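Appendix C reproduces, verbatim, an entry submitted by the partner laboratory led by Prof. M.T., so that reviewers can inspect both the input and the predicted structure.
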Amino acid sequence: MECYLQFLGLFGVALPPLLFSIGMPHVGPGLGTILSASELPVAVFMSAWIVAENISIWQWIGVILIIGGIIMGNVKQSNGHLTSSSSRTTILLLLGIVLVAANLRPALTSVGPLIGDIRADMSLSNVQAGLITTIPLIGFAGLSILAPRLGRRFGNEVMLFAGLIALTIGTLLRFIPSIVMLYMGTALLGLAIAVCNVLLPGLIKHKFPGKVGLMTGVYSTSMGVFAAIAAGISVPLTKSLNWNGSLAVWAILGVIAVVIWIPQILRNGDSKVQATKVKVGGMWRSPLAWQVTSFMGFTSLAFYITVAWLPEILIDQGLSVATAGWMLSLAQLAALPASFLIPLLADRYPDQRVFVGMISILYIIGLVGLFNSSIGWVSLWVVFIGLAQGASFSLALTFLGLRASNPEHVGELSGMAQSLGYSLAAIGPMLFGYLRDSTHSWTVPLMILFAAVLFQFFTGLLAGRDLYVIPDGERQKEMYPAKKVL
């Protein structure tokens, strides 16, 4: 305890002076201010986790609003002088993007800590319990390939609005204490998340063509913040709401996002596809597109296995249910700085292979340490895993913007990468549960996780090269470095 408190004090005392005296000249005042603001959620989380201070959901919301305001203010400032009308429009768009992203993970990360309660209450096997995490991934895989066409037909803003409504309804269906409603609601929210997952990168490329890295960092960080909160408070919420109420409470966030997004559908016209439409078959003939897709797939495979089963693994190692849930939340919290910084840094360098190597090292250290050391070190290894997951997932999203030259190509690449990538990821949680049931051990299932990390490394080395995806059969152009226009 004393060691943790000393670390917390050092973090609070040392970070701001270092950022302002040393870091600010290198990263600029905007990014420096955003990084300084990261002290706030870390301090609040540490107070809740280590000192056992009671932090209400409203305090968490206050922290998020403060950081969101700082981020939006600095993004707005970096866009130059705006008129009052365009300023309001930009702020609403930024807030909408943050809230859309905030809704894309709680429905998934809130399940892991509750999987034992759900399994016991519904009399499910580990395979059936794994389906709760696998079903959304099947939805991702099935609809992701169609989402770009829907975006071109109806406009990205309208489809994102429809996705938010479907996500809210699906989340509410899980409140009904029925296995059928649980699976149906999970399937519906999976389809909704698929649409939003695919269309957000293209919307950002269209609205913020010169700031793909910054905006990818903003929305991936928003996903990470709410993923961490959902994982951390799922078990405490069951004391008053039961497990089904704990899952359904995130519909409130969906309603807020729907309301904030309404102004975007009122000015929908400018985001429908412009003149030329990209042929999907051409994208599928691109080797680089397959490499980006593979990196996305193995990244998602490792992420969703961890989200679904890390709490159960830690419970078997001796942690309480509540502590195991907080460990998953700690992993999501550790992912936040990496989720924000990696897209910014990746956007500044033409080649991202060095980041792929760093991510693999963090992953391997975390996994080896977690399953080969005493339980007293579990927090450290979980932090390593969280850093690797945050960095790899945000880098995969950044590849969608950096490896394509225009919003239409981004949409097609995003649909392909997320459709096939999540098809691969969908196998993970259910296969992991099946191997656990068959072997009554975590050893064989963990080999799947290690294999995913290794394949992530090799495909990332290919996807991280300074090239553009060239659809429509122009594969020979991939032999030459991409000229960055961002």
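The chain has two domains: 1-81, 82-479. Additional entries are available on request from the coordinating office.
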